[in-house]
Each structure stands twice: as C-alpha cells, then as structure tokens.
What does this fold into?
Amino acid sequence: MKKEQYYDKTNLVFYKFLNNFCLSVLFISVLLFLYLFFYQSMMNSYKDFKQSTAELAPIYETPQIQIPTISQEEIVPQNTQEGLISQNTSSILPQNTVTPIVENTPVSIPTISSIDNSSKEAERIFIAYELGDHVLASRLIVDFISEYPTSIYRHKVRLIGAKLMNERGDFEGALSYIQRILGETQLSNEDYSESVLLLGSIARERKQYDSYIESFLEQAYFRAEEPTKSKISFYLGYLLLHKNEYLSSLKYFNNVIGEDGLLGKADLYAAQSMLPERINELENFIKAYPSSKNFEYVKTSFIKDNLAQGRDLVVRGYLDSAERFYTKILTHFNNTVHGDQAQLEIADLYYKRQKFDQSMVVLRKVLSNDDTTKDADALFALGKIAFELDKLEESLGYFRKITEEHPKSPHISKAIEWQNLIVESLRY
It folds into this structure.
C-alpha cells in the first residue's frame, strides 16, 4: 500500500512539472511571436514613412526641373476614369510664325527601391515608356490608377498619361491627368513644377488655353525661381499672345532666357505684322544659336521674311531700304543658293536704277559660286543687260550658254527666242 502511494505521488509531481513546462513554453512562444510581429510591422511602417516623406518633401517652393516635352508615338485609351476640364477654348497663331522644334526629353523617372506594393507596376510603366512601348504603357497606366490611387508614384504615372493622351490628340484627356495632380493638397517641388510646365507645353503646342491653365501658370510664375521661371514666362507669353495682349506678352518673353525668348518675340511681332522687328529677332537667333535644333527653321524663316520685306519695299519704291534686307541674307548666307538669290535681287535693283555695269558685276558673282542652282537666272539677266548695252555678241553668248549648259532651265524657251532675235540683228 505504501509503495502504491509513493508511485502516485511521484506521478503527480511529474505531471505537474510537465504541465508547467508546457505552459511556460507556450507563453514564451506567444511573447516571441508578438514581439517579432509588431517589430516587423513597425519597421515596415517606418520604412514606408521615410520613403513617403522623401517623395513628398519639401513642399513646393522653388521648383528646379527640366521642361517635360512630348515624344509622340502611340495612344492612350479614351475610356479612363480621369475627370475632364469643363472649359476649353482654342486660338490660332498667324501662319507666319516660327514654331520651335521641341527637344524630346522624358519625364524624370524615380528609382524604385521601396517595398511599396505599387513600385513594381510603376517601374513597368516607366520602362515601357522609356522603351517606346506606349501601347503597353497606356494600358498599365489605366490599371495602375485604378488599383493604386494613393501610391507615391501616382503623380509620375499621371504625367506620362498626360503626355500619351496629348499625343493622340486628346487635349482634354491630357489636362484631366494634370488636373488630378495639381488638385493634390501636397506636392513635391518636382511634381508640381513638372505638372505646370507640361500644362503650359501642351497648351502652347495645341494652341488651346482657358482660365484654368492661365491661373496655374500665373501662380507658378510668382512662386518659381530660375530656370523654371523662364520656362513659365515662355508659356505665359504665348497665352497672352493668343489673347492679343501684346504688351503683356512682350513683358513675359523678355523674361525668357535663351533662344525661346527670341522665338517668342519673333512670333509676337509676326502677329502684329511687324516684319522688320521679327527679322531682327531671327537674326539675333542666327548669331547666338548656330548649333540649335531650331536653326534650319529659323534660317528658312529669316530668308523668306527678308525677301518678302525687300520685295514689298521695291513695289513701294524704296529701293535703298530694300537692298539692306537683301544684304542681311548675304551677310549670313553668302556663297549659298540663298545668297545667290539675294544677289539676283540686288542686281535687279541696280538694273532698275539703270546702273547696268554694277548689276553685271553682281550677276557674275553668282556665276563664280560653286552652287550652280541660280546660274541660269544670272545668265539670262546678263544676256538682257548686254543686249541693252548693244553688246550683241556678248549677249548671244550668255543665251547660248543657257541652252548648252542648262537645258532644263525654265528660261530655255525665252533664251532660244533671244538667240534668234540677236542672230537676225547681227545679219544686218
């Protein structure tokens, strides 16, 4: 009996010990689990907070960005959830304007290094956009905005969406993306500046402005520093040009740094039919920016406007003034086909003044150039002058040279008529 009581007590002690041990292990496990769970959650929250703060701060004060421009290749679907701008007006610049070639530069792409759930989708959009797969980028943008409306990348994604909407000709759709960005209560310097500048760029490109666009451009202008202030001045100048507020437009164009200011003022003077002033701005551009991508366009406009102004002055009888505009072309583009055309115009001025010898000297300069495009014109003019000076054999030589060396010249039939006339004259 005593032996059985001993075993019972022993078993009781053992079971109590085992029970206490299990309870202790369970308690420690629960504590460890809770510690690890809350610690990891706190760390994740801390990392998210740091990244969100880095993206949103500092609040917009002095934007420092490059102008976002549009590379237009594919389309964005029209069926998006973005709101539309209710007011939309359009205006058209005069045809005789310089439209600068806008250099294609992509939206600033952030480095993806967070554990944000939207980061991978945002990265896919940025890569698709940079690689030119705009169809894929368009589809991903619509999905991203629907699934991640509060993502820290939402502004960059909407900026790309605005560019793609604009490229398909959907001006209101592009504005709706930008409106969503600017409607945020807090924006980083970069996001605010990029949005306003893209707004101005699209509006100027489409020649469409409204009070919403004007309001944001004016607010951004007074808050910005260079170089952003200069770019906003450029867009405000065009906005006021479209409203025919020429003095205010000139004020803003005068604040634009670099070639854009010259181009803006050239368009402003064209709108006011102030061709000499426009020509001066184009000439300043040619002197200052010979390597610009806009140079060829400005060169063509400069030559065309000088010829037009010179010919208008000739019609009105101001031959000396006309010569000054033709000389401008020679100053910058001598020994080219454009210079030869200016020489032909100057030779015609001497001809009208009965200064035949001086006219022939100028025409021979055209023949001395390597470019033979205007040689037939010069030969025909020389033939006529020589005939008037009663130098029939010399005149005949000029006309024969046209038929021999320039058989495709538009002067060919007239040159043959002149040859026949001179041959008949020489017989008597």
